[in-house]
Write a structure and sequence with these properties.
Distance between the termini: 72 Å
Shape: elongated
Structural class: mainly alpha
Radius of gyration: 40 Å
Number of helices: 42
Helix content: 55-70%
């Protein structure tokens, strides 16, 4: 970084300082000093325009004769090859290679710079020299390293002999128009797989060439005391930074056929195999093979509209970056800069190159000539562009030759301005700048006329959408990002969403989604940001995180990306749902098919129907869905059930979060949804098992002699999102009954196999997840009991062996599906068991003890969060009170056994005068409030509630009632 004194120095003072540094060099010999003195005037003038020349000479005074000599004016490659080959003859280590490459590079670049800043040659000659020097440095380093590694691993080979790695030079290196202090973009590839031979250790070709590539990059890129040869950029290779460093031709072909992006076609216009001219790599068949892969990808015989779209997008991106980043002083990236000339030429190459071989040149200057020869662009235009382009390239060279820095920004320091104006042939910087402004204005005018813009959905005055586009399409730093959204978001929201956008953009580079997917994603992301900021500016951080999770999940499915892009209402609905519920966001992320549901928002709003109507609607819709599926296609059946459940559940949740569905209706709908699916599953399982074994002989007509009993939340009409199902399976087969199939088995075994099949259909995880998680531990004898129990055995167990907690569970049990006769039998058994006379004190003690035990095992203690189910005064306390009233008083009040749900149990208890109407209402309201909050926690994808005065009041009410009922003191 120059100091203030250095900046205020004149060019002559800079030159004299540099002169004294050279003369003070410890490496200066008498002969070198004599030569330097002879050329003092020229050197002083050169030093005043280029510190790089002075520094190179100070570090290596022996190079004076080469630096003031003449760079090659033709046969540049041969010249540099001969000189560098001589210096590499006797080196034996990578450190020596590194030193030779850097010193040779600096010496020859100083020679080119000397001729350039003194205007001893044209800019076109300089471009050729710089490019040729790069070719030789890269290829010579490659061949030395190839031979170096071959001594250990042997050489790769094919039917033609030794196999080599081909080096694609991209950008200006590919066009042989490299700028003075440039980085180099490379891609490495080799013909085919195989193993090396002739060395101490054979390895695969891929491994060998990766080792060569790694060492080549290090040899060129590493900064040492002698500097750096080139900054090496490998990001243009297939899959970018996440892709392999080297690919064989077949893999390369697959990538460009299936994954190649528009910008990669644009880049490939310049791609040149830089080591084909070398005798070491002159395998014409391999070169032709590689060309046959790249050529059809780059040049299309027939123009498709996606090319024009891509060019429009690139042009727009260039203009946006200029505006956003204020690049007015940048002669490459600013308006009318070098990049716009390159875009002009390459656009015509992509559009017409497939039909016009003359436009397939790697050189921009040659391409401009061809455009006028083919009458595609007027001669006057190409002449003007060529002149202005070379003018800018001369400026670029001069800027970079000042101190061997990669810069295209006009200087601020007076002495640098003066040096630039002098080299460019102007008396003053202002005179030079006026000419520059005119040249860039001409270029920018041609650039603007290049591709006609499409009409836009958003107006140019829509500053928010402009900010959203810039946020996604440009590489903004945090300050620039903040400026873009300063009128729309708070500082905290900006700081929160910036790293998310940055991270997603980085991930997106690694997605292998093809060009169409990438184009759609690049249009969709600004729209997502736009809707997000419009709808939820105060919750943008959390909502964006959920949205990007969904987008990441569907990135490989372009149909879903198209769905969101082409249907703004669907996108708005998705943003709305993600804002209200993390659970919904996670569900859509796991199962993107749910996005189809957003196409019909009518369904999402029409959910407030009664339980009977809801069940009929579910039965009809599921029946229609299943008609399309063969009943013996088990995999399709399982997927159809899961898709149906997911879609219906989303509809319920969408209504729930919009507050259009009361909590008890939410549970009713989730419960009857499960009932309908269960019945369908039971029927399918019955068919599958009976096809193999026949049906039990005791059955008549369509009877199955089988029933499914629902316990817990299913039994009590209180299912929540993601609730598991507590089930018990019953049958009524006589002990001697067998099946009537070819492979007959005992009826008991048949029903066990039926239960196993049902469990398999419910529990199996497919692409669409698990249908329901089930729990059979409430059956007689729990996990030790039979999967399917005879109704008589069930009653006997309940009377003789069941614990109090099992009778508590029976309070919330009811028949879900199965034979009407068997379901009636179950209801009678349930009533008889619940109506048994009990010792109320002993019962109270059992219930209290079980509640304490549950709390000890299940309650999660947190300082500032509340477990609504297990906490004191929570959901389970209310449920236990309802169960106690039933078990304690059903022998006197049978109406307590009619309903399995807590709300109607409280109502029945009040009607039996076991508690007051007020107490019943208080407990019902408390129960509904806690369950509603619990539902919303599930939708927010969290388990614990925040403490609040309202929650404390509810819990206190429940705790007091518990203490009254069980004669406890309130703690």
């Amino acid at each position: 970084m120059p100091t203030e004194n250095e900046n205020s120095m004149t060019n002559l003072e800079h030159a004299q300082n540099a002169w004294h540094q050279v003369l003070a060099s410890p490496h200066l010999t008498d002969s070198a000093k004599q030569q330097i003195e002879i050329h003092k005037d020229e050197l002083l003038l050169a030093f005043s325009r280029s510190l790089f020349i002075a520094n190179t000479l100070a570090n290596n005074p022996k190079a004076i004769s080469r630096i003031i000599g003449t760079p090659p004016k033709n046969q540049e490659i041969s010249f540099y090859e001969v000189a560098l080959t001589e210096q590499l003859k006797h080196i034996s280590s990578e450190d020596e290679l590194s030193r030779v490459l850097r010193r040779f590079r600096n010496q020859e670049m100083a020679c080119i710079a000397f001729s350039d800043v003194l205007n001893k040659q044209t800019i076109t000659q300089s471009l050729k020299q710089v490019s040729a020097l790069a070719d030789v440095l890269i290829t010579k380093a490659y061949h030395w390293l190839y031979d170096f590694l071959a001594t250990r691993y042997g050489k790769p080979h094919d039917e033609h002999g030794d196999m080599h790695m081909y080096i694609l030079g991209m950008g200006k290196l590919g066009g042989k128009e490299l700028n003075f202090s440039s980085d180099i973009d490379l891609i490495f590839c080799y013909p085919e797989k195989g193993e090396t031979s002739g060395g101490r250790k054979s390895i695969e070709h891929q491994q060998f060439f990766i080792k060569v590539a790694q060492k080549l990059i290090q040899a060129l890129n590493k900064i040492t005391n002698d500097g750096q040869v080139y900054r090496v950029d490998m990001r243009l290779r297939p899959f970018g930074d996440s892709g392999p460093l080297v690919m064989h031709f077949a893999a390369l072909e697959d990538y460009y056929q299936d994954q190649g992006r528009h910008w990669e076609r644009f880049a490939m216009v310049k791609a040149r195999i830089i080591n084909t001219d070398n005798p070491h790599c002159k395998d014409e068949k391999s070169v032709a093979w590689l060309s046959s892969i790249l050529h059809p990808f780059t040049y299309r015989r027939y123009l498709d509209f996606t090319t024009l779209d891509a060019l429009r997008n690139m042009k727009k991106l260039i203009a946006t970056e200029i505006r956003r980043r204020r690049l007015s002083n940048n002669i490459k990236l600013g308006a009318g800069g070098i990049r716009e000339v390159e875009f002009f030429a390459q656009s015509f190459q992509l559009i017409h190159g497939g039909r016009e071989p003359m436009l397939q040149s790697k050189s921009l200057l040659t391409t401009l000539e061809a455009l006028s020869e083919l009458d595609i662009v007027e001669q006057e235009t190409t002449d003007a562009l060529t002149e202005d382009y070379l003018f800018l390239r001369k400026i670029e060279h001069t800027l970079q030759q000042n101190n061997d820095e990669q810069t295209q920004t006009l200087p601020n320091e007076a002495w640098r301005k003066h040096a630039l104006a002098q080299v460019m042939g102007y008396e003053s910087y202002d005179e030079f700048n006026a000419v520059l402004v005119d040249a860039m204005a001409r270029i920018h005018s041609h650039f603007n006329d290049l591709v006609e813009e499409q009409s836009e959905t958003h107006s140019q005055e829509d500053t928010l959408f402009t900010a959203c586009q810039d946020a996604w399409q440009l590489s903004l730093n945090q300050e620039e990002f903040g400026d873009a959204f300063s009128d729309h978001l708070s500082v905290d929201e900006i700081e929160g969403i910036y790293p998310q956008v940055l991270s997603f953009k980085e991930k997106q580079r690694n997605y292998r989604i093809g060009q169409k997917g990438e184009d759609t994603l690049n249009k969709l992301l600004p729209e997502i940001l736009y809707v997000l900021v419009q709808q939820h500016p105060n919750h943008a951080v959390n909502v964006l995180s959920r949205l990007l999770g969904v987008i990441e999940a569907i990135t490989g499915r372009t149909t879903y990306l198209d769905l969101l892009l082409e249907n703004p209402d669907v996108l708005k609905q998705l943003v709305r749902l993600c804002e209200r519920s993390d659970w919904i966001a996670q569900e859509i992320k796991r199962f993107p098919l749910l996005l189809d549901e957003l196409l019909t928002p009518l369904y999402l709003g029409q959910q407030n129907t009664d339980i009977v109507t809801s069940k009929k609607e579910y039965e009809q819709e599921l029946r229609e869905n299943m008609l399309r599926i063969e009943q013996d296609d088990v995999e399709m059946l399982m997927d159809a059930w899961r898709q149906f459940k997911l879609c219906q559940q989303l509809r319920i949740a969408a209504s729930d979060i919009s507050d259009s569905l009361p909590i008890n209706n939410v549970s009713d709908k989730l419960t009857v949804l499960a009932e309908v699916i269960l019945e369908n599953v039971v029927n399918a399982a019955w068919m599958q098992i009976s096809e193999r074994f026949g049906v039990p002989e005791h059955l008549e007509g369509q009877n199955k002699g089988f029933a499914v009993i629902g316990y817990g939340k299913l039994g009590g009409y209180e299912l929540g999102y993601g609730s598991d199902l507590d089930l018990v399976f019953l049958h009524n087969a006589p002990r001697t009954s067998t099946t009537n199939g070819k492979k007959a088995i005992e009826a008991q075994q048949f029903y066990i196999k039926l239960a196993q099949r049902i469990m398999h259909l419910l529990n199996t995880k497919t692409l669409f997840g698990q249908l329901f998680e089930t729990d059979l531990r409430l059956r007689p004898s729990g996990n030790a009991g039979l999967l399917c129990c005879h109704i008589d055995g069930f009653e006997k167990y309940q009377h003789e062996e069941a614990w109090t907690w099992e009778h508590q569970a029976l309070v919330r049990a009811r028949g879900i599906c199965g034979d009407a006769e068997l379901l009636t039998q179950f209801c009678e058994v349930r009533e008889r068991v619940l109506c048994q006379p009990r010792d109320i004190d002993a019962l109270a003690n059992d219930v209290r003890s079980m509640r304490v035990k549950m709390r000890e095992h299940l309650l999660s203690n947190t300082n500032d969060k509340v477990d609504l189910k297990q906490c004191v005064g929570g959901i389970t306390d209310i449920e236990f009170m309802a169960q106690f009233w039933v078990l304690a008083h059903a022998n006197q009040h049978k109406t307590l056994t009619v309903y399995p749900d807590n709300l109607r149990i409280f109502e029945a208890a009040a009607q039996s005068h076991l508690l007051s109407e007020e107490t019943a209402s208080t407990l019902q309201n408390a129960y509904l409030a806690l369950r509603e909050q619990y539902h919303h926690l599930t939708l927010a994808d969290t388990k614990y509630a925040d403490e609040s005065d309202e929650l404390d009041a509810i819990r206190e009410t429940v705790t007091k009632q518990w203490a009254t009922l069980f004669k406890e003191e309130v703690g």
